[in-house]
Amino acid sequence: MTETSAAPPSSDELWRWSAARLARAITAREISSREAVASCLRRIEQVNPSLNALVDVYGDEALAAADLADRMVAAGQALGPLHGVPVSIKVNTDEAGRATTGGVPAHAEAVAAADSASTAALRRAGAVFVGRSNVPAFSFRWVTDNDLHGRTLNPWDTTRTPGGSSGGAASAVASGMVPVAHANDIGGSIRYPSFACGLTGLRPTAGRLPSSGMEGMDTPMSAALFAVEGPIARCVDDVRLAYAAMQVHDPRDAFYAHGAGAPLSRTPRRVGLLRSVGVADPTPEVDKALDQAAGALRDAGYSVEEVELPLLAEAYRLWYLLAIEEVRLIRPMMNALGGESLRTAMDGVYAVAAEFWGPEPTLAEFINGWARRNTLLVRLSQFMEQYPLLLLPVSAEQAFAQDADLEGVDAARRLAAVQWSQMAVPTLGFPALAVPTGVADGLPVGVQLLGRRFDEAGLLDAGAAIEARTGVLTPIDPR
């Protein structure tokens, strides 16, 4: 990300700065953390009432934390990579002293006693928490709305979803409330909001960043192996910075792969361009974004070739068995507490799942599904020996209309199809990066990069090559 630094900093404009630039300037005592945090808080006051991206803003506490950060700088203490930088935490994730509501009225007073693994990592990195970002009830939809906190709007177009479940995080970053937001992803919840709001979002390899799992209950296997924590930001540099800051061992994660290194490859700069897997073809706008990204990669020295990879279509369908069957166990509770919109959305999801697996999959099908997942994982690993990077859609179309997922089974089927990669990637646990490429018809559009397991560095390098050509789209004023 190119930023001009010749002019002296204006505290009124610090909310526009990248996290990397803020961190450097705070450490160098060119600006204070208080100035940076105060600037973001003023921006929140300006735009959050209309967008409803942050549902719990704590100005005085954030300023006190910023003052402490500044005293640490003055004392010459060791500083973390995000020292003094304003960050938001997703409201489905524990933050000590704050309610982990998950957008559910019954959980409005569920105050966390301790930080989750990801929250603790960001706090240790020096981040200053300024607020909690909104989610759909139980973080289940691609639309961010719930009966407790209300609806979050997309700053590009209020009639379109900001994505879900990290829609509040994405709306906050895109509109300048924070430069970096914490997020998580089990079925597109980092990548889709990034795509819908014109941002960069990293879904790391499963096990790369620590997760505390589902606090207070036994974590289902699909949540343990499919769900990951990760950052959303406006540029690749900030994603890289936050990702590095979050790589801290935490004993609460049974699957954390501490010290795992990136695989070697004979062809590290070979990219497979995957437009479709036969589930839903990309719209002309998304297809053009793929071409633009491919051109940027070629200009940067990558070799890009069109490929076919039907195993991802199978992984997409498998998600509707492995993840959705485990959710079925808590569906009565979700139906009771999540509100009418969640019930309707879940009806659509289970109708889609039934078309693949029948209304009541058997235990044998479920067990065989896990075995098949292992086969697909190996086959994708083997394929990526030849193509260490894949370029593919985040979604086959741009951000859909608010509540399009509530319009019946046909709508649910269509949305599931256009979002095929949102489910296929978590099923196999490979890292993926959403990168914006431009604007079409007033809405952002972008692409997804898929990398080999534990090769986030290669993924981010390729994302930076695309960004160097296409630029950074945000922050923007709400429209």
Automatic annotation (TrEMBL):
Residues 35-460 form the Amidase domain. It comes from the Bacteria. Pfam families: Amidase. InterPro entries: Amidase, Amidase_CS, Amidase_dom, AS_sf. PANTHER family: GLUTAMYL-TRNA(GLN) AMIDOTRANSFERASE SUBUNIT A, MITOCHONDRIAL, TRANSAMIDASE. Belongs to the amidase family. This is Amidase.
